UniProtKB/TrEMBL annotation:
<keyword id="KW-0472">Membrane</keyword>
<dbReference type="GO" id="GO:0005524">
    <property type="term" value="F:ATP binding"/>
</dbReference>
<keyword id="KW-0067">ATP-binding</keyword>
<keyword id="KW-1003">Cell membrane</keyword>
<keyword id="KW-0547">Nucleotide-binding</keyword>
<dbReference type="InterPro" id="IPR027417">
    <property type="entry name" value="P-loop_NTPase"/>
</dbReference>
<protein>
    <submittedName>
        <fullName>ABC transporter ATP-binding protein</fullName>
    </submittedName>
</protein>
<dbReference type="GO" id="GO:0016887">
    <property type="term" value="F:ATP hydrolysis activity"/>
</dbReference>
<feature type="domain" description="ABC transporter">
    <location>
        <begin position="7"/>
        <end position="247"/>
    </location>
</feature>
<dbReference type="InterPro" id="IPR003439">
    <property type="entry name" value="ABC_transporter-like_ATP-bd"/>
</dbReference>
<dbReference type="InterPro" id="IPR032823">
    <property type="entry name" value="BCA_ABC_TP_C"/>
</dbReference>
<dbReference type="Pfam" id="PF12399">
    <property type="entry name" value="BCA_ABC_TP_C"/>
</dbReference>
<dbReference type="InterPro" id="IPR003593">
    <property type="entry name" value="AAA+_ATPase"/>
</dbReference>
<dbReference type="Pfam" id="PF00005">
    <property type="entry name" value="ABC_tran"/>
</dbReference>
<dbReference type="GO" id="GO:0005886">
    <property type="term" value="C:plasma membrane"/>
</dbReference>
<dbReference type="InterPro" id="IPR017871">
    <property type="entry name" value="ABC_transporter-like_CS"/>
</dbReference>
<keyword id="KW-0813">Transport</keyword>
């Protein structure tokens, strides 16, 4: 990789008891690119995502963000250093409006930084929330309680909340899971546009979905690295076809 990577995963393995879910995975991610981690069922994609996003530490290996070792770092530190993850639907306060949810997310960021800079005023937070809601296409429903939003809109709300921390790296786990075809198109367009401003790494089971929007794909199989490359490279890779495309 010619540019200095923003995220480096080095020799990462993960065991659950005797089960080896990941084995020695090493990959690096260039800044401001959209990369998808793909692979068939049980390939280790979610485990990879959880290790990289700090949900649990790897059994072996290191994860580095902008050169800093973040292996095993506490979850709450991630937003502070510039990493956000979506989707944890549980983060949405169902009774609050879309606007209030994003404002709270933005407020949490300024609270974290309050020692370093003055707290933002309510007006500033409100403006920021509005801008983010516009960014993810939820302006029209900003006043609605989150619970009344369609599934796709709730997920877009999660994205707006994740963006409130102004991340340099956005990690997304199956962002279109459970979405209708129409909602999927909207979300894919959104992800594509977000990736022009920051690094986005997404985990996706459905390879076809990401082929059109990702610059790079990483394929896992049986918990190990199988291949990486552009969508065209991956489409032409006989081994990938065998283990992955053959199933669909
Ligand atoms: N907490 C756990 N305890 C035990 N085994 C686990 C645990 N989490 C995952 N596994 C196993 O690790 C393997 C990889 O699972 P993982 O969820 O990472 O795969 P995946 O590629 O995301 O699959 P899918 O596309 O089906 O979601 C699977 O065989 C799974 O059963």
């Amino acid at each position: 990789m010619r540019t200095t990577p923003i995220l480096e995963v080095e020799g990462v393995s993960k065991r659950f008891g005797k089960f080896q879910a990941l084995t020695g995975v090493s990959v690096a991610f260039a800044p401001n690119m959209l990369t998808a981690i793909i692979g068939p069922n049980g390939a280790g994609k979610s485990t990879f995502f959880n290790v990289v996003s700090g949900a649990f530490p790897p059994s072996e290996g290191r994860v580095r963000f902008r050169g800093r070792d973040i292996t095993g770092m506490a979850q709450h530190e991630f937003a502070r250093i510039g990493i956000a993850k979506s989707f944890q639907i549980t983060n949405v306060f169902k009774q609050l409006s879309a606007h209030e949810n994003v404002r709270v997310a933005a407020q949490m960021r300024t609270a974290r930084f309050s020692l370093l800079r003055p707290r933002a005023s309510l007006g500033e937070l409100s403006d920021k929330a509005d801008a983010l809601l516009q960014r993810v296409g939820l302006w029209a429903v900003r006043g609605k309680p989150a619970t009344d939003l369609a599934h796709g809109q709730q997920r877009a709300l999660e994205v707006a909340m994740a963006l409130a921390s102004e991340p340099q790296l956005l990690l997304m786990d199956e962002p279109t899971a459970g979405m209708s075809p129409e909602e999927t198109v909207v979300m894919m367009d959104l992800i594509s546009s977000l990736a022009s401003e920051r690094t986005v790494v997404l985990v996706e089971h459905k390879m076809k979905l990401v082929m059109g929007i990702c610059q790079r794909l990483i394929v896992l199989h049986h918990g190990a690295f199988l291949a990486e490359g552009t969508p065209a490279d991956i489409r032409a890779n006989a081994e990938v076809k065998r283990v992955y495309l053959g199933q669909h």
